[in-house]
């Protein structure tokens, strides 16, 4: 591998800081000691790496790293080669400002640097450090999804390096099967070296910030949210978080609003009025107008920097904001974070983006099986010490199982799991439903030998 004639760098444990830095992931639990880390700078650097790894006996495992945000070890390898796309992070807005091409190793922050300057917008992550690659291939929910759907619904084309080394363009006209598979099938069909997305008019100014209520007021807060939801428009979204913020670490309900296209802040004020003047008043109220998604995407930086770096995330979908389900999760979270100081930074998030736009796409039109209106939730198990990592893992698994079962009981729909927030040990039929057979056929067509063996693995047909 060290002797490959490519323009990018090949790092090994002997490369010192450059190697150690390249191993870093958003969660310390996602780090594995790779034998080689290759950082391509050209798309043509990648096929020789694949050829070299697959020609060894036994073949070297290949992992692909986009932004490194996923909390499993999908973008890392123990003793294999990591194709680290971090140097492929260019973002190019088309001259007509109708589309934007983003290389597969960019962070959403790289995209927002450009969209902020050019006063345009694109469906992307609420947090700057999430990678465009993994996020998009898993579907991609974001603050603009209420208006414009998921990231994959806004994907116009992509360039993929296939397992056999070919570099192909894919869109609804070129390699359409591949285009279908990458819009929610994960990194199982090739390396996405670039994506071209639809661009929208500027979504700013944006009403954004934070309101917090004591956890003891959960029932009242849920009532305010449930009432607000009846009049929700596609341009307004809340996330509701259960967390224990420093310095008091008391159970707290943190509400993060995002109100798009609010020229003078008056719409944000109107929407928030019941949250301020209802039966319960916030103990913290810091909401204002910010210019754009770049600013929104940095809002949580300080809190995240202070949090323990051992993180495991799981999540799933819910059909509605059922108070009984939310209260059940709250009670479980409260008991867990009270039981052990090591894990008190563990948190739960419910995303309340208007779900109707995502339901305009059919459930067989992309690999994502759930296209009836739904919301997503995530549970972050964080641990200060190695001793409590297992407890944090069990907690995340317990919460998502509870949510899935309770949602099925209350809605009559079993939504299974959402790929992006899986850990890899879920049943594939629970993730892809009736889309699984087509995904398996396409895996057989594009990667019969499972060169892409990391991530949520789809088995080729035998
Ligand atoms: C704090 C936090 C908040 C999040 N919020 C949201 C949210 O609001 N909405 C949402 O939809 N998701 C959200 N996610 C989930 C996130 O989208 C996934 O974890 C996603 O996989 C991260 O992408 P990445 O490129 O950073 O990941 P990585 O860890 O680099 O990769 C994850 C997987 O994708 C593959 N992959 C990455 N890039 C490529 C590529 N270019 N080509 C082929 N395969 C690739 C990797 O091989 C790996 O299997 C959040 C995650 C975190 C940690």
**Which CATH class of the largest domain applies here?**
Alpha Beta
Shape: globular
Kindly, what is the distance between the CA atoms of the first and last residues, rounded to a whole number of angstroms? Answer: 31 Å
Helical proportion, percent range: 25-40%
> Numbering strands along the chain, what is their spatial order in the largest sheet?
15-12-14-13-17-18-16
**Domains, number:** 3
Mean pLDDT: 97
Largest sheet: 7 strands, antiparallel
Q: What would you say the CATH architecture of the largest domain is?
A: 3-Layer(aba) Sandwich
Radius of gyration: 22 Å
Describe this structure in words.
- It is globular and about 65 Å long.
- The strands form four sheets. It has a seven-stranded antiparallel beta sheet with strand order 15-12-14-13-17-18-16. It has a five-stranded antiparallel beta sheet with strand order 5-6-10-8-9, with helices on one face.
- Helix content is 29%, strand content 22%.
- The protein has three domains: 77 residues, Uridine Diphospho-n-acetylenolpyruvylglucosamine Reductase, domain 2 (2-Layer Sandwich), CATH 3.30.43.10; 112 residues, Uridine Diphospho-n-acetylenolpyruvylglucosamine Reductase, domain 3; 216 residues, Vanillyl-alcohol Oxidase, Chain A, domain 3.
- It is α+β, with helices and mostly antiparallel strands and 462 residues long.
- Bound molecules: flavin-adenine dinucleotide.
- Flavin-adenine dinucleotide binds next to β3, α4 and β10.
- Flavin-adenine dinucleotide (FAD) binds next to β3, α4 and β10.
